[in-house]
Design brief:
72% of the residues lie in helices and 11% in strands. With 750 residues, the protein is an alpha+beta fold. Among the domains are: 29-124, Alpha Horseshoe (Serine Threonine Protein Phosphatase 5, Tetratricopeptide repeat); 388-514; 566-745, Nucleotide cyclase, GGDEF domain (Alpha-Beta Plaits, 2-Layer Sandwich). The strands form 2 sheets. Strands 3, 4, 5, 6, 7, 8, 9 and 10 form an 8-stranded mixed β-sheet that branches.
């Protein structure tokens, strides 16, 4: 029976949304309407008439005289369109859409809202545009068209970021979180809610902070953390009690009641949901009265089912229990009809029908249960169709890409690079013009010209590489967005197939409904198994990603959809290469050679892990690693040298153990470099810069079984290691460089 209680007493998702707000005391409204009618009748010109038509239309909407209101608003619109007052057009169309929304004519409401947003955008009024996006989101959401809602939430986010308006940004994050919430992705929803909360706190918007606390509480409730949920619900309760917001208080009492469901405490659930219903009646809100009234009856049924016995997994009802259910299902039907008349909210309607189907099944009314279940599927399909799922995935992928594109700002970045290059070249030209002017001989001037040309080419080469890096980031964003889109499309299709299979099974007839509770139990177990499989697959995927990328970069990639290459000023590069590898490879077979390399590189990997170095790659028999990134470390040079000495020790040990043991050279250099992901197909984390090239030269200039370090590394480790100065050694393409052999450790911070 716990299944019945958990389902029937479960709370329905109803996040508070910013949207149309209207209403005033009825006793003064009639007098105001009469006064406006008189002013309209005596208006001396079309402009005044249009103004009073708009004002009267708004007042009539509040009195629920929708048809007359819409007619007056259209008359006002005709004038505004004639005089081309774009801002007024946006306002009037918004009010017309409000009228159609109240008439539950979503189609016409959306037409006018889309036109209102277009006019607001043309007018340049950012606040009007923000309100238009919010109204569109609310209307699309109530119609179950989550993809369209998400699209407009992202538009609102971009507008808020452009205007640097925390309320706009917060509202966009709020709505985006709600869409993830509605689609069951509570982890993503929580990320968006956290972002929204920070914005609303910056704006000091007490009401919206409290609204977010309800949704955050919902997250903790569904995550099995009732104590945390209660904390957020009670914070919100304090705010809305102070604000005397009865609609929000009603929602909170229902959610607080839901926290008792885990302990099957239906008495407290019923008491709190009845409190919600009382508040809805105080508000005289038909939609809320129907919603909470239905919830009270659902919980009454849950309380009854605690005492129902089962025979062959079928509930057996006595006369009194059947009478209670007959009364409950009658009230549920009435509430569901009232709710359908008051709102176009396919999500909640589908849940009501699903509940009634299960209650009828328990009563033995299999024909009625089947009819309710069919209606539930029809409503559910209206917002969970393949098209809507596909649209939702496409919008997610589109804005994931646009977010990465916006953050990269490819064009702006390229313009910035070009400007910096021109500034540097101009500075270079000015510097050498001064030097040439001071030169005493023609030979000196020619030398200066040659020197300037070399530096100019170096600058141009550096900025060419910077442009290529920016382009790579851009292409990476495209590839990642496409990959995410394909992944989400596959998941959506899988969910859709599963939904269709469930529907087809349910429509086999009343015989299937007889064992529906058992199927539901199995479905729950299957879902848990599926969730475990998904979790295992996710872990394998994460482990694979961590095997390819540094942990911090992998997390950045998963969180933001992209990873930005960064400059590190304090890093140490370690480069190794086996000596006479070609000759050894000629003596060994292919498989033996691969096995031998695997033994060496596996040992090197463990050494890198021991000292916190990041393995970058292997190139044939060469091994490249770096210390001091992606998280900077003060002892980066010391750790790299320790790792190098461990490698030397292992190689010596291996050489003694096998006849075909190898010798190795190791080079180390410290300095600044750039690190990040390159490529658009097979992502690879790599490092670039002169520091890397110099490390390679240290290796090439070294000796077998020795660790050769540069001057820059020596300055960082000379207090910790015994080193032998080798003098200035000619390094390929680098000229003479100071080099040192590391002999051993003289001090350790570990």
């Amino acid at each position: 029976m716990k299944y019945w209680i958990a389902f029937l007493a479960g709370i329905l998702l109803q996040a508070g949304c910013v949207g149309f707000t209207y209403g005033q005391p009825v006793d003064t409204a009639a007098q105001q309407i009469a006064e406006i009618r008189n002013k309209l009748a005596t208006a001396g010109n079309d402009s005044a008439k249009a103004y009073w038509q708009l004002d009267l239309g708004r007042k009539l909407l509040a009195r629920k005289a929708y048809d007359e209101a819409i007619a007056l608003l259209r008359q006002s619109l005709a004038y505004q369109e004639r005089v081309k007052d774009i801002k007024a057009i946006a306002k009037v169309k918004t009010n017309i859409a409000q009228g159609y929304n109240m008439k539950l004519d979503t189609k016409n409401a959306l037409v006018y809202l889309e036109e209102a947003v277009a006019a607001a955008e043309k007018s340049g009024d950012k606040q009007l545009l923000s309100m238009g996006f919010a109204n569109l989101i609310t209307t699309y959401n109530r119609a179950g068209l989550t993809a369209k809602g998400l699209d407009n939430a992202q538009k609102l986010l971009r507008l808020g970021q452009k205007e640097n308006d925390p309320k706009m940004i917060g509202t966009a994050y709020y709505y985006t979180g709600y869409f993830y919430h509605l689609n069951g992705n509570m982890g993503m929803a929580m990320q968006q809610y956290d972002a929204a909360l920070r914005q609303y706190e910056a704006a000091r918007d007490t009401s919206m902070i409290a609204s977010l606390q309800i949704n955050i509480g919902e997250y903790y409730s569904t995550s099995g953390q009732p104590d945390s949920a209660k904390v957020y619900y009670n914070r919100s309760l304090q705010t809305y009690t102070r604000l005397n917001d009865k609609a929000k208080l009603a929602a909170l009492y229902m959610r607080l009641g839901n926290l008792y469901a885990a302990g099957d405490d239906t008495k407290n659930i019923l008491a709190l949901s009845s409190k919600s219903l009382s508040l809805a009646r105080e508000l005289n809100d038909t939609e809320l009265m129907a919603f909470y009234g239905f919830s009270v009856e659902r919980i009454r049924c849950a309380e009854l089912f605690r005492s129902v016995s089962l025979v062959d997994d079928k509930p057996v009802l006595n006369t009194e229990q059947r009478k209670i259910l007959v009364d409950a299902i009658g009230k549920m039907e009435t509430y569901a009809q009232d709710y359908r008349k008051a709102t176009v909210n396919y999500v909640e309607l589908s849940r009501m029908l699903q509940t009634m189907s299960y209650v009828r099944q328990a009563m033995g009314d299999y024909e009625g249960a089947l009819n309710d279940y069919r209606a539930y599927i029809d409503y559910k399909d209206s917002f969970a169709s393949a098209d809507n799922l596909k649209q939702f995935v496409a919008v997610e992928a589109k804005y994931a890409f646009e977010k990465s594109r916006d953050s990269l700002r490819l064009k702006e970045e390229q313009r910035r690079i070009e400007l910096e290059k021109e500034m540097e070249l101009n500075a270079l030209r000015f510097e050498y013009e001064k030097k040439r002017a001071l030169a005493k001989t023609e030979v000196e001037r020619k030398e200066l010209l040659f020197e300037e040309e070399l530096k100019r080419k170096a600058i141009e080469a550096e900025y060419t590489r910077s442009r290529e890096v920016a382009q790579t980031k851009y292409e990476q964003g495209i590839a990642l967005a496409k990959a995410n889109e394909e992944k989400e499309r596959a998941l959506s299709l899988a969910r859709l197939r599963k939904s269709r299979n469930t529907r087809n099974m349910s429509l086999l007839g009343a015989g299937v409904l007889l064992v529906l509770a058992g199927i539901a139990g199995y479905g729950y177990s299957q879902k848990r198994r599926d969730n475990r499989k998904i979790a295992d697959e996710k872990k394998r995927s994460d482990d694979l990603l961590l095997n390819i990328l540094p942990a911090e970069v992998a997390e950045e990639l998963k969180a933001n959809g992209h990873s930005v290459a960064q400059q590190y000023n304090n890093a140490t590069v370690l480069f190794t290469d086996f000596v006479s590898f070609t000759q050894v490879s000629e003596r060994l077979g292919v498989q033996d050679l691969v096995n031998e390399l695997n033994i060496y590189f596996t040992a090197f990997d463990r050494i890198m892990e021991k000292y916190g170095l990041e393995k970058i790659k292997t190139i044939g028999d060469a091994y490249l690693a770096v210390s001091g990134l992606p998280v900077e470390k003060e002892a980066h040079a010391e750790n790299a040298v320790k790792a190098a000495l461990d490698i030397i020790a292992f190689v010596k040990q291996r050489k003694q153990a096998v006849a075909h043991g190898l010798d190795i050279r190791i080079g180390i250099n410290s300095g600044s470099l750039i690190a990040g992901i390159i490529g658009v197909k097979k992502f690879a984390y790599d490092i670039w810069g002169d520091t890397v090239n110099t490390a390679a030269r240290m290796e090439q200039s070294g000796e077998p079984g020795r660790v050769n370090i540069s001057e820059s590394t020596y300055e960082l480790v000379r207090k910790d290691f015994t080193c032998t100065y080798r003098g200035k050694i000619d390094a390929k393409n680098k000229g003479d460089m100071d080099m040192y052999f590391v002999e051993g450790i003289i001090h350790s911070n570990n």
